[in-house]
Specification:
CATH class: Mainly Alpha
Organism: Kingdonia uniflora
Pfam families: Mito_carr
CATH architecture: Alpha/alpha barrel
CATH topology: Mitochondrial carrier fold
Largest sheet: none
Subcellular location: Mitochondrion inner membrane
Number of strands: 0
Protein name: Mitochondrial carrier protein
Radius of gyration: 22 Å
Helix content: 55-70%
Number of domains: 1
Keywords: Membrane, Mitochondrion, Mitochondrion inner membrane, Repeat, Transmembrane, Transmembrane helix, Transport
CATH superfamily: Mitochondrial carrier domain
Distance between the termini: 8 Å
Length: 348
Amino acid sequence: MSTEDVVRKSPIVNLAEEAKLASEGVKAPGHAILSICKSLVAGGVAGGVSRTAVAPLERLKILLQVQNPHNIKYSGTIQGLKYIWSTEGFRGLFKGNGTNCARIVPNSAVKFFSYEQASCAILALYRQQPGNEEASLTPLLRLGAGACAGIIAMSATYPMDLARGRLTVQTDMSPSRYRGMFHALKSVLREEGPRALYKGWLPSVIGVVPYVGLNFAVYESLKDWLIKSKPFGLFEDSELGVTTRLACGAAAGTVGQTVAYPLDVIRRRMQMGGWHNASSVVTGDGKAAIEYTGMVDAFRKTVRHEGFGALYKGLVPNSVKVVPSIALAFVSYEMVKDVLGVEVRISD
C-alpha cells in the first residue's frame, strides 16, 4: 500500500471528508467511525495474542534488566527460563502477562488514533509549504507522526506499564506481594505517592522517539527499496507478500528496539526504585538495590557499577521475541479483520 493510499484510506481522513460533505448538505454514512472501532478491536486482540505467546521471554527480559549485580539469578535466556520454571512453575513464565495484555487494548487504541491524527496534521502542514502541494507522507514525516503517537499512547498507559513491571519482577519470595494490577496501582499510590506512578517516564518518552520513529522509517524504506529495485527479480508487482512484509517489520523492530534498549533498561530500573519487596532487586543481605535520583543518575550508576554492557541486559530474549511477536500480531490481526470486515490496518 502506497503512502497516498494510506492517507486516502485513513479513517481520520474519511471523517474529515464526511464532515466537509455534511457541511455542504451531502449525507455521508458513519462508516469511518465503525471502521475505526473494528480496527481497534482487531488490533487489541492481535496484540494480546502476540504478547501472550512471547510472555516468558518478556518476563525474563525484565528480570535480567533489573536484577542486582551482586545477586545474579538469571545468567542467560535458556538458564533464566529453566530457573523460572523450576522455582515458580509454568505459571511463573506468564507472571504479569494479564496486566500486560490489559494495557494493550487502550495503548493500541490511543496509538492508532493519535498516529492517524498526527499523520494527517503533519501532512497538511507540510503541504502548505510552497512546492509541496501534492506531497505524500515520507519516512521522515512518518517518524514524526509515529513519535507523537508513541509518546501520547505511552503517557496515557504508563501507570499500567509500571504495575506490569512490578508484577513481573515479584516472586514467591517477595515479602509483600501485589495481588493484581489495580492492587499494585493502589499500593504504589498509597505508599509512594502519585509521582511514583510515572517513575521512569522521561527515559520512556525519549526512547519512544527512536523506537517508534525507526520502526516506521525502516519499515517503509525497506518496502520502497524492495519494490523499486526488485532484487533478484523476486517482485514483479507493486505489492509485497505477507512474508516479505513480516521480514521488513522484523528488521524494523530489531533496529528500533536495539537503538532504544538502554533507555528501556533505565526506565525499568527507575520504576523499581523505592520498592523494596522484589527479591530480584535486593541484595543478599536484604537491603534495597541502588536508588536513583533521576535518569542521568541511573545511567551513571548503572555504567559505573556494572559496565556499559548492563545497558543491554535482556537484549537477547527481547530480540528473540521480536520476530514471532510481529508474525503472530500480523496473522491474528488478519484473522480478526476477516471476521469483522476491517478495511484499514493499524500498521498502515
